[in-house]
Amino acid sequence: MKSTKTQSRGDQYVNRRQVLMADLATTHRIDAVVITHAVDIRYLSGATEGVSALLIGPGLSTLFTSKMFEARVPVEAPGCHVIVGAKVFEESARQLRECRYRRGVGYQGSKLVQSRFQQMSAAMGSRKLVDIGEAVVQLRTLKDAGELRLIRQCVKIAETAFLELIGQGAGYLMTRTERQVAAELEYRMCMIGADRQAFPFNGIIAAAGPHSASCHHFPGARKPRPGEPLLIDWGAEKDGYRCDITRVLFMGEPDPRMRGIFEVVSAANVAGIHAIRTGALCSEVSDAGWNVVREAGYGELIRHGLGHGFGLEIHEAPGLGSGGSQEAAHKAARLAANMVVTVEPGIYLEGKGGVRLEDDVLVTGTGHKVLTSLSTSLESAILRT
After folding, report:
1. What is the domain extent for residue 64?
2. Distance in angstroms (rounded) separating the CA atoms of residues 333 and 51
3. What digits encode the pLDDT tens for the residues 89-130?
4. How far apart are CA 285 and CA 115, in angstroms?
5. Backbone dihedral region of 369: left (phi > 0), alpha (psi from -120 to 50 degrees) or beta?
6. Which uninterrupted H or E stretch holds 7?
7. Which of 100, 80, 56, 61 shows the shortest CA–CA distance to 6?
8. H/E segment holding residue 368
9. Whether residue 90 sits in one domain with residue 207
10. Residue 41: which of 96, 111, 143, 129 has the closest Cα?
11. How many CB atoms lie within 10 A of CB 272?
12. Could you report how far apart the first and last alpha carbons of the chain are, in Å?
């Protein structure tokens, strides 16, 4: 007999698949779909690796894997039928014929390369193929209780490790390179419960002095110096979920210009967070934060969106865009309860330094709840030796 924990885990993914298929039946008039994006497969089944596709149809939840993962996938994905070594689209077509399914089949057009689409088309024959667009992405924007629990755990781990590190003082940090700061922060997070740091490609950002003017600096051999900013953008990952936080520290008293920039960014952070509520346009939240920066005379230095969703991936919908294609894609999007977003205004002065302050915020039915608890005050950012 399966344990209650396993049954509960399986029920969670069954429910997600049911919600997706109910949506697709209404919006696309289909009752079957082949999911090929790895993160979406994990979200809908629990399988973390080694699965090439998930077929969902009438009475069907089939995962396709290889010999390498045949023992692991069934444990991670209770409630799914696991097939090893089969050709995905041919076997999917066979199973759909077997259950006498005759309607169209969904696929993820933005996640499927042309050659794979051609294979799917050939295997499905005359059956209509329907691009489901961002249906799973939109489903993932609304976090359930289990997801929120993991995100909160990540925030607690990340903040605890950060406070331990900066508690060593400015004198200690000035003996460490950017690379060593990032490595030590990751080590401290893992020692208190994180699986790893949260950023799969670039890793933790630790940017000292003028390097902090680069939005996504790769940590190097530079050490922070007296009076300089040290920008740290980090997060913890646990069971696939993560958080995303940024703070700027000063190694002693900052100069007047950096002090002024910090105060502007802190005010923009507060304004952006204050605008978050169910039903708010993403563009309204973006404007609320960035207008503070514009009114202070730094509008030309805006380099990125005010924030973004996160969860299984570090950058997810919704986007709080500030221009270009991102704004075009998200201008009309509205926030909904149980979305989780970052708010991260920043001002960057080439050759001198930058300030970005990033918090994680849950949209609630009555407004919002800030999940992060670290101070954004200037006084808290000034470290003494």
Report:
1. 4-139
2. 32
3. 999 999 999 988 888 999 999 988 899 999 999 999 989 999
4. 40
5. beta
6. helix 4-27
7. 80
8. strand 367-370
9. no
10. 111
11. 28
12. 59
**Phi then psi for 189, rounded to 5 degrees?**
-65, -45
- Domain boundary among the residues 83, 111, 139 is at 139
Buried b (16+ CB within 10 A) or exposed e, 138-167: eebbebeeebbebbbbbbbbbbebbeebbe
According to DSSP, residue 358 is labeled B
- Whole-number Cα distances in Å, 357 to 169, 234, 266, 331, 341: 20, 12, 7, 23, 14
Domain limit, last residue, from 110, 139, 168: 139
Q: Same domain, yes or no, for 132 and 177?
A: no
| Tens-place pLDDT, residues 335-370 | 999 999 999 999 999 999 999 999 999 999 999 999
Would you call 308 helix, strand, or coil by DSSP? strand
Task: For residue 383, give the amino acid letter.
Answer: L
The type of residue at 153 is Q
What SS3 class is residue 355? Answer: strand
Which whole number is the average pLDDT over 59-74?
Answer: 96
Residue 58 neighbours by CB under 8 Å, 6+ apart: 31, 32, 99, 101
Residue 345: CATH number of its domain: 3.90.230.10
Same domain, 8 and 79: yes
In total, how many domains does the chain have?
2
